[in-house]
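Field: sequence (string)
Field: structure_tokens (string)

Example rows 1 and 2, in order.
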Amino acid sequence: MNLTEELTTILRCKKFLSEAYSVGGGEEIEFIRKCHIYMYFAINLPYNETRYYRIDDSLDTDQLK
């Protein structure tokens, strides 16, 4: 995967997370890393703990604990 494709995929996943979890009001989505199958993201909340998620190729999302 070239850099342009990878950045496009990261932005698409961030948009998906933003819409799926109503991110806004000071919350921020941060890309953490990409593995072979999953991409890992964090939703940083200003007054609560950070929530961590992983997304696979078909946009199946799991919240990590």
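Row 2 begins here:
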Amino acid sequence: TRTEFLKAEGMDTAELTVLSSLVFDFTDVTESAEGWHGFSVADAHFADNGVSLGRNAGGVSRAMQQAWDRIADGSATEVKFAEDEISLGAAFGAFHQADPDTFDDMLLELASQTAAAPLADSPSAAIAAANSVLSCPAFATTGVMMDEGSCVWSRALGGETTQGANGDSSGYTQSVGGLQFGGQAALADGWFLGSGLTYENSWFRNDSGSEKMEQQSFTGAVALKKEAGPWLFGFVGGAGYNWGDSKRYINLDTLTATAHGEPDSAMVFARARASYEFAFGDEYYMRPKIDLDVINMHQFGYTETGAGAMNLMVDGNSDTAFGVTPGIEFGARIPFLEDWPARLYGDLGVSFLTADSWETTSRFAGLSSMDSFSTFTPIADTVGHVTLGLDLAKRQGMELKFQYDGAFADDYQSHTGSIRFGYRF
């Protein structure tokens, strides 16, 4: 691969020397048979050049080194793109301007991270979906003991999630709005069958604004519950599918391009819950509980367009996370109308997950063959949950519920507000 680094005119070449850069070593200046004076690149050092790199930038540096080495030894060839798109040679040449202060940032221009944010958010999405189909309680005629029943409900929600930067993994913000529909039917002997379907539209943006994505998703869940006095046991199974459009704005020295992608992903999840209710008189209650979750996440492969050789060919990938969430709910029965009591409640819990990052593997489209390199998007793995709500629910009849859900972890926070309309039979 050839690119023009320097052009000098004049007759005197006695003092002409070419200094090595951070990435490139050059040969001495020589004179050709035609009288031209020139030099060549002796070697490239995208990796192991003395600059300390983070995990993601290090992966990109090794990929660039691999691309250079494979072209140099003839084991791969450059894939050509349109003249207005970035060529592999031009991308190599841009790093001639790199110095120790800019090298890391230049490498990260070639990585995609925000497109994997929905996968990093999958455990939280699965936990929220499972929670939504495990809640159709109402007070008994008197007192604070609650029992399940048959109901239908709909819910509107909106919120924002912020993931801070972690190492050299970019932070991002997610804004979301959605609708849920569900219901529950009483079976026999204290058994209940519930289900719910959620549609959400989300917008993702990384901290620098260089990556953006709009995503839509459907999530469905089915719950089977058994009520035995103050005990409640629940089992949930569900799945979700995400699809969207991503943009990655590349600015590499004088090179600019926008890489477009269509990253799709899916998840399958299951939960087991056990809870027990303690009544304190006729006004207050406490309900400790524990949830066990398993979430499988899958990224479908896709190829970007628009950035030439720097388009990423993203591999399909899967991972499974296990989680445990001990929690406790406190509540009070408040007089509202004669046959329509109000329930004021709060819920505290902590989720412990086995996964702390999502690994994306990809290759540059500008090379005929190369090994995939990895970049990582953080997953909040120890998350505190806070829920506050007001539930106006007749034992039979209309229900109106207002709820806030917050989640907090290192460099992570999520806030969601919702209003739910329901009817109990």
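free_text_note (row 2): The chain has a mean pLDDT of 92.
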